[in-house]
TrEMBL record:
Gene designation: ylbL
Ranges where the PDZ domain occurs: 99-185
Pfam families in the record: Lon_C, PDZ_2
Protein name: endopeptidase La
TM annotation in the entry: 6-23
Organism: Lysinibacillus capsici
């Protein structure tokens, strides 16, 4: 009896290990389509289109031994090393903050481009320098955090990312700088002694952080975007189209269920994204009829380095054929390609 209990106990431990222990690997698989009108509101406008504009997601989960083995035998699940998902220099919190910052920048670009295409003015505001990562062992380690926004250095208001670079450039090892920064909407001040930047190719003094610009945009009418649970830049194109659809009197959707993906760049071009094959599968599963795919160009240098690399559009078309979907795959190099396609589309 005791022997049986021991065997059962061991089995339970093994099963728990197989199902709960987290490996340094992730699994990517098809996510879902989300109607963008549920996330975007343009004041004094109504999202009353006959059809819908949907952003696409992929599902990412950290692998367990059981899910790792299961993914190995699934055609549309991809195993990824942790280095393929996360920058080796960042921890989980910094990774999540970077993804949310990418989403924030995507929203900024979507508003800017949509209002530009609608012929409406916007006002761009520089907020500060947004910290993406604090290097272990660097001058700011334990003082600054990812997500902080630097607004002043030694009493001087920061008006551009380059200004921060210029202020720090003449500084020497051991020099002290007083930093004013925003954290959780509260202003803080710290004096930091500059140290050599860890793992830098050249020996120089610095704060030991990686950063980017933090900007906001004022529009009239005001645009509200609620995307707390979505990270990354790939919804940019669909955000832009949804804002434009609500700004214009015409119905861009023409009654169709339209999905798409692609980073929205400030000049209106559509940038390449990851996991487009899984997004095509999810869009088909969720009943989408039209799918916008970035038609990015692969340079000769990239092709030489990665011979199997192809454009998002090429991958989307290949996946659509594999799953035998009736969904129309439409290539877009810019938001104008998507707008022009929708304008010539016959109402359903």
């Amino acid at each position: 009896m005791k022997k049986k209990i021991s065997i059962y106990a061991v089995l339970i431990v093994v099963i728990c290990f197989m199902m709960l222990y987290r490996l340094d690997a992730y699994i990517m698989k098809p996510g879902s389509a989300y109607d963008v009108s549920k996330f975007v509101t343009v004041d004094s406008k109504e999202a009353d289109s006959e059809g819908s504009l949907s952003l696409m997601t992929v599902a990412m989960q950290q692998a367990t031994p059981f899910s790792y083995l299961w993914a190995k035998v699934q055609k549309y699940q991809k195993l990824m090393d942790i280095e393929q998902v996360r920058n080796p220099l960042e921890d989980d919190e910094e990774y999540n903050i970077r993804q949310l910052k990418l989403m924030s920048d995507s929203q900024f670009n979507a508003k800017y481009v949509a209002f530009q295409r609608a012929g409406l003015e916007t006002k761009v505001l520089f907020n500060g320098v947004f910290i993406l990562n604090v290097l272990d062992g660097g001058a700011s380690d334990g003082i600054l955090k990812a997500g902080d926004e630097i607004v002043e250095v030694d009493g001087q208001r920061i008006t551009s990312q380059q200004m921060l670079v210029d202020l720090l450039k003449p500084k020497q090892l051991g020099d002290k700088v007083t930093i004013q920064f925003i954290r959780n909407e509260e202003q803080h001040q710290e004096t930091i002694t500059l140290q050599e930047i860890p793992n830098a190719q050249e020996h120089r003094a610095g704060l030991g952080i990686s950063y980017t610009e933090s900007k906001s945009i004022e529009t009239n009418p005001k645009v509200t975007m609620k995307t707390e649970d979505i990270g990354g830049p790939s919804a940019g194109l669909m955000f832009t189209l949804e804002i434009l659809d609500q700004l214009l009197d015409e119905d861009l959707t023409k009654g169709y269920a339209i999905a798409g993906t692609g980073e929205m760049l400030i000049d209106g071009s559509v940038g390449r994204i990851g996991g487009i094959d899984y997004k095509v599968i999810a869009a088909d599963r969720d009943g989408m009829e039209i799918f916008f795919a970035p038609d990015d160009e692969i340079s000769q240098e990239m092709k030489a380095k990665y011979p199997e690399l192809e454009s998002n559009y090429a991958t989307a078309v290949k996946t659509a054929k594999e799953i035998k979907t009736k969904m129309k795959i439409v290539p877009v190099k810019s938001v104008d390609d998507a707008i022009n396609y929708l304008k010539q589309l016959q109402p359903k």
